[in-house]
Design a protein that fits this description.
Elements (H helix, E strand, L loop, with lengths): L4 H4 L12 H12 L6 E5 L6 H13 L13 H5 L10 E5 L6 H12 L8 E6 L6 H12 L5 E7 L7 H4 L3 E4 L5 H15 L2 E2 L3 H9 L3 H14 L4 E2 L1 H8 L4 H13 L2 H13 L4 H21 L3 H4 L5 H14 L1 H18 L5 H16 L18 H4 L26 H18 L1 H7 L3 E6 L2 E6 L2 H4 L13 H13 L4 E6 L7 H16 L11 H4 L22 H12 L10 H4 L1
Parallel strand pairs: 1-4, 1-5, 2-3, 3-4, 6-7, 9-10
Antiparallel strand pairs: 8-9
Helix pairs in contact: 5-6, 8-9, 9-10, 9-11, 12-13, 12-16, 13-18, 14-16, 14-17, 17-18, 20-21, 20-23
């Protein structure tokens, strides 16, 4: 059974590690100067060499000729820590994802006390250190802060922010990065030469793109292509089909159709892509990257080959002619449209529909008609004035300029005008929403300062309705009041609410209540009061006492019903259902 490529080509020294010179150079200088710290923190994306660097550092520290920046590779420690070795007793590699509790930390502390079995240092490598719990880190804190002379700690993690600050502050932190595509492309070319594998042109750039800068992921993709290839040579079609990328010829065909501005050619090329089973979002990403390459080719000129490694001269020539025909401004605007469409395509129920709409928007942004043949625009039939019109047409009056709807009002809003218009405003609110109108019944305009109207409410509880929205996703009810004020007065104002002051009844009203109440109670009916207008009509001292009826009646009957009718008509503004007296009907 074959061993995976990433295991067979794991670096055994810092010199073999690619793309991490900002980490390997300081470590090699520290080893050469014998200034190695007791704890290190290696962080970065997956597959960029964190755990490998930890093992190389352990080899350098425990080498028979060390500490050295270049392991000898022949001593027992170097052999045991090589890619084919079985491991060393003095180098303990712990998976922190499954050993992350307090008990595991205590066990590590107990093991750290004992001296190394053979080598110079006892080294603990904690992989996936961000998985250790806070309690586990706290249990390790003391020994990480002041370890024995023979103990070294190396933490490797993809999320350094999850390592508690008290641990990070006691380590030397080295952030790893993704490997640049040019270095990664050169590296996998060397791997293919070492393996004796032939690949077609354009395959390795796809492998580098699929790896995303991770050396381990890139080698895994290459290993998959080599293992699954039916031929001794890894073909471009095989790589395209396995990795799911869009074929370069299809991308060039779609862009050529877009450059021509012919809609039929564009959608024929798009349907060819869809019928191959290509994922719509992946095609959109591939097309966006192709447009990026066209911009680079148009701007870089003859140096584009250095910026696009792995691209053949023939492909660059075709891209150059296409880019020069479209121009960088057009390509840039098309890239903006693509990026926006890709963002809206996430989670879409029909990504194919979004892709077709994207093609239409790209044609529009190209600035040409997306039609196969020109169609004459329809024009309204206009009679010829010389042949059909015998009489001269009357002169057309010049159009009068329309007044802007948002023009400011001619006169400022006064408090008196606001008070006079308030009933009309309430009526307009009632036509739109009855609930808001009912909350505003009994309110008054109490003042106006600049554009702020003070509205008095009998109770502030009713004013709470103005804060509630008119409906799901709509504005508050207060906006309905502002619109009614604007429609009635022509002024857009703000308003604040205030509770109306309570008023004591006048002496005349109080006397009327005292004189009427005994008669109504004697009649066995509901207590009634005189309307406010009755005070002006007749003084209270001239009111004659009501005569008790001979036969007791209901709550409102006989002479007492006249008082209730007056209240209903003059105070409440209502009308009785029947104008006949109850005693007459009986």
């Amino acid at each position: 059974m074959a061993t995976a490529l990433y295991r067979r080509y794991r670096p055994e020294s810092f010199a073999e590690l690619i793309g991490q010179a900002h980490v390997t150079d300081p470590l090699r200088h520290a080893l050469s100067a014998d200034r190695v710290n007791h704890a290190y923190l290696f962080s970065g994306p997956r597959g960029c060499g964190k755990t490998t660097s930890a093992r190389i550092l352990a080899r350098c520290l425990n080498c028979a000729e060390g500490p050295t920046d270049t392991p000898c590779g022949v001593c027992p420690s170097c052999v045991e820590l090589s890619r084919d070795g079985g491991g060393s007793l003095d180098v303990v590699e712990i998976d922190a994802a499954s050993h992350n509790g307090v008990d595991d930390a205590r066990d590590l502390r107990e093991r750290a006390v004992f001296a190394p079995a053979r080598d110079r240092y006892k080294i603990f490598i904690l992989d996936e250190a961000h998985m250790v719990t806070q309690q586990g880190f706290n249990a390790l804190l003391k020994i990480v802060e002041e370890p024995p002379e023979h103990v070294k700690f190396i933490f490797a993690t993809t999320e350094p922010e999850k390592v508690i600050g008290t641990i990070r502050s006691r380590t030397h932190h080295y952030p790893f990065r993704l490997v640049p595509p040019s270095e990664l492309l050169t590296y996998i070319e060397q791997v293919c030469s070492s393996e004796g594998v032939n690949v077609e042109e354009g395959v390795l750039p796809l492998v580098v793109r699929a790896g995303g800068g991770s050396v381990r992921d890139t080698l895994s993709v290459l290993d998959q292509l080599i293992a699954g290839s039916p031929d001794p040579t890894v073909t471009y079609d095989h790589a395209i089909g396995l990795l799911g990328y869009t074929h370069g010829e299809l991308l060039a065909e779609v862009m050529t159709a877009l450059a021509s501005g012919v809609g039929s050619d564009t959608f024929h090329a798009l349907h060819k892509v869809i019928h191959t089973g290509q994922d719509p979002r992946r095609f959109g990403e591939d097309l966006l990257e192709y447009v990026r390459d066209l911009i680079i080719v148009d701007q870089a000129g003859q140096e584009a080959g250095e910026l696009l490694p792995g691209t053949s001269a023939a492909t660059l020539e075709g891209m150059r002619s296409l880019a020069q025909g479209m121009g960088t401004p057009t390509l840039s605007s098309m890239a903006d449209v693509m990026a926006e469409a890709l963002a809206s395509m996430t989670g879409a129920t029909s990504p194919t529909l979004h892709l077709e709409l994207l093609m239409a928007r790209l044609l529009v942004s190209r600035g040409q008609a997306a039609v196969t043949a020109p169609v004459a625009p329809s024009r309204p039939v206009v009679a010829e004035p010389a042949q059909l019109v015998q009489e001269p047409s009357p002169p057309v009056p010049a159009p009068t300029p329309e007044v802007a709807a948002d023009a400011p009002p001619a006169h400022p809003l006064s408090e008196a005008a606001m008070i006079d218009a308030w009933p009309e405003i309430l009526e307009a609110i009632g036509e739109k929403k009855r609930g808001v109108w009912s909350a505003l019944v009994g309110t008054e305009v109490m003042g106006l300062e600049e554009d702020v109207v003070t509205i008095g409410f009998p109770s502030l509880t009713s004013a709470e309705l103005l804060k509630k929205p008119q409906g799901p996703g709509l504005a508050a009810n207060a906006e309905l009041v502002r619109e009614a004020i604007l429609a009635t007065t022509g002024h857009r104002v703000r308003f604040k609410v205030q509770e109306l002051p309570t008023t004591e009844p006048t002496p005349g009203e109080a006397l009327a209540v005292e004189e009427v109440a005994p008669a109504s109670e004697a009649a066995g009916s509901w207590p009634t009061v005189l309307p406010p207008q009755a005070e002006a009509a007749s003084p209270p001292e001239e009111v004659e006492p009501l005569v008790e009826p001979e036969v007791p009646t209901g709550p409102v009957a006989g002479e007492l019903s006249q008082v209730g009718e007056a209240v209903i008509r003059e105070v409440l503004g209502g009308e009785l259902i029947s104008e006949k007296r109850i005693d007459e009907e009986n």
